[in-house]
């Protein structure tokens, strides 16, 4: 941590701390010690760099050369990193000792910001590069609510900072291990006999497993904390935070929920609605939201497996991608039933009192059915694609949620209607737009459904 960043770090915990002479002197000793420890290693790293990387002028990127020179460079880099971590830990222990119990939450938040800056840029999941602290700032909560959330946010910031530090370490160690594996396998090892390439792929896949697991650990912290914060907020504030989170992670999944949100806000703003009507509406919809949000998490987790494939595609990798897409569609189907139910509840409450709003609700219901029909088409195509990859029927993806998609081209959909259309009674579960039986059998998943950051130049 450079001196200016350290001063900023202290000031973000407590303004007077930035001028603490004891801590500033400690940073001077930290920097001097680190410079001495790494002087020889840094010089040798500079000597090795030209032999460890090639510059790809077409893509304007550096490509690693898997040779003993790269292995030596990685070992020196790891040594420098360990020295830095040891010195940094001593410095941070002094900072922790200088702050009060009331400043612990600010310390955790400042550490989180610092760890986020250190995190390597290459991440597969959108949840790895965003924090709930950023999104909470957009909800504009009152000071009383913010104070009530401080214990949750302090624990969250501390856990997430540790998870980021762990991920940084895992990625660094994976780079070193990958250099050893590919150097041992030799230049253009992918052109070697299959008995060699398979063994190398297994070793590299193990590194990818640890990489991806570190992102899943971060995602779990995010989702679990979101649920805790949501439970402490007023319904509208909590729902707004959930919507910010959904738009940040997977905006492509939540078009139907955005429609629902707009219609709720429009309904609440109607002149004909009193405060009592507003309360009754929000109470009726809160049950739907409590059912919806865990399903939204399920949709996000399924979509997280639809990631960039390996540069050299295998049948397993393609099958895994299709499985992930089918699982996402199945999760979306369950969500959409709840969204449609909520829209129908709104439509029943409006009745014929507000024709314009009723018409827009009918449009929203039509759009929801349209999204469902599009998913049915995609799912049928995906199942057919898996069958073609397997050279025959029999994959368990066939037996999932939409087990009997139409075998003929669909006819033009019947419009849901205008303002005079009759909605389903409030509380009645909506009909499945596909009229397909549901099944609890999950779609297949496999390790190949992740992406990779490997340099496939070998």
Question: What this model shows, in words?
Answer:
This protein is mainly alpha-helical and 458 residues long. It has 3 domains: 1-99, no CATH class; 105-249, no CATH class; 261-458, no CATH class. The protein has helices spanning 3-13, 21-52, 68-98, 104-118, 132-139, 143-185, 194-232, 235-249, 255-268, 275-303, 315-350, 355-390, and strands at residues 53-56, 61-64. The protein has a two-stranded antiparallel ribbon with strand order 1-2. The longest helix has 43 residues, at 143-185.
Distance between the termini: 36 Å
Strand order of the largest sheet: 1-2
Q: How would a crystallographer describe the biggest sheet?
A: 2 strands, antiparallel
Count helical runs: 12
The helical percent reads 55-70%
Radius of gyration: 27 Å
The pLDDT mean sits at 82
What would the principal axes of the Cα set say about the shape? Answer: flat
How many β strands by DSSP? 2
The run of helices and strands is HHEEHHHHHHHHHH
Note the beta-strand portion: under 5%
Low-confidence stretches: 392-449
* Helix-strand category: mainly alpha
Oligomer: single chain
Number of self-contained structural domains: 3
Short structural description:
The chain is mostly helical and 458 residues long. It contains twelve helices and two strands, in the order ααββαααααααααα.
Give the SSE map:
Layout lengths: L2 H11 L7 H32 E4 L4 E4 L3 H31 L5 H15 L13 H8 L3 H43 L8 H39 L2 H15 L5 H14 L6 H29 L11 H36 L4 H36 L68
Antiparallel strand pairs: 1-2
């Amino acid at each position: 941590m450079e001196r200016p960043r350290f001063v900023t770090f202290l000031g973000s915990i407590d303004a007077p701390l930035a001028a603490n002479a004891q801590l500033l002197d400690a940073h001077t000793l930290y920097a001097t010690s680190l410079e001495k420890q790494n002087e020889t290693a840094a010089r040798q790293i500079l000597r090795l760099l030209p032999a460890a990387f090639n510059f790809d002028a077409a893509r304007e990127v550096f490509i690693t050369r898997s040779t003993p020179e790269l292995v030596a460079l990685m070992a020196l880099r790891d040594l420098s990193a360990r020295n830095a971590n040891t010195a940094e830990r001593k410095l941070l222990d002094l900072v922790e000792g200088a702050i009060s119990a009331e400043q612990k939450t600010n310390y955790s938040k400042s550490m989180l910001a610092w760890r986020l800056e250190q995190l390597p840029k290459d991440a597969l999941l959108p949840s790895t590069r965003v924090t709930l602290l950023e999104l909470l700032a957009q909800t504009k909560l009152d000071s009383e609510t913010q104070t009530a959330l401080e214990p949750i946010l302090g624990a969250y910031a501390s856990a997430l900072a540790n998870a980021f530090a762990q991920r940084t370490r895992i990625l660094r160690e994976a780079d070193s291990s990958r250099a050893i594996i590919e150097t041992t396998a030799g230049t253009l090892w992918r052109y070697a006999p299959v008995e060699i390439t398979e063994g190398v792929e297994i070793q590299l896949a193990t590194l990818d497993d640890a990489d991806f697991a570190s992102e899943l650990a971060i995602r779990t912290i995010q989702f679990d904390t979101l649920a805790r914060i949501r439970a402490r907020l007023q319904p509208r504030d909590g729902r707004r935070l959930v919507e910010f989170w959904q738009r940040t992670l997977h905006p492509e999944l939540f078009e139907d929920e955005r429609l629902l949100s707009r219609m709720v806000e429009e309904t609440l703003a109607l002149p004909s609605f009193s405060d009592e009507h507003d309360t009754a509406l929000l109470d009726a919809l809160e049950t739907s939201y409590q059912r919806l949000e865990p399903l939204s998490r399920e949709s996000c987790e399924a979509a997280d497996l639809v990631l960039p494939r390996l540069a050299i595609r295998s049948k397993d990798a393609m099958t895994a991608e299709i499985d992930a897409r089918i699982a996402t569609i199945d999760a979306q189907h369950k969500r959409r039933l709840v969204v449609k139910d909520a829209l129908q509840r709104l439509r029943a409450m409006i009745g014929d009192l507000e024709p314009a709003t009723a018409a827009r609700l009918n449009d929203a219901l039509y759009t929801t059915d349209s999204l469902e029909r599009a998913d049915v088409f995609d799912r049928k195509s995906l199942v057919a694609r898996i069958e073609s990859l397997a050279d025959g029927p029999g994959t368990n993806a066939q037996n999932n949620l939409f087990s009997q998609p139409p075998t003929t081209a669909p006819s033009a959909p019947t419009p849901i209607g205008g303002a005079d259309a009759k909605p389903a009674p409030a509380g009645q579960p909506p009909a499945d737009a596909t009229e397909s039986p549901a099944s609890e059998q999950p779609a297949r998943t496999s390790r190949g459904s992740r992406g990779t950051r490997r340099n496939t130049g070998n």
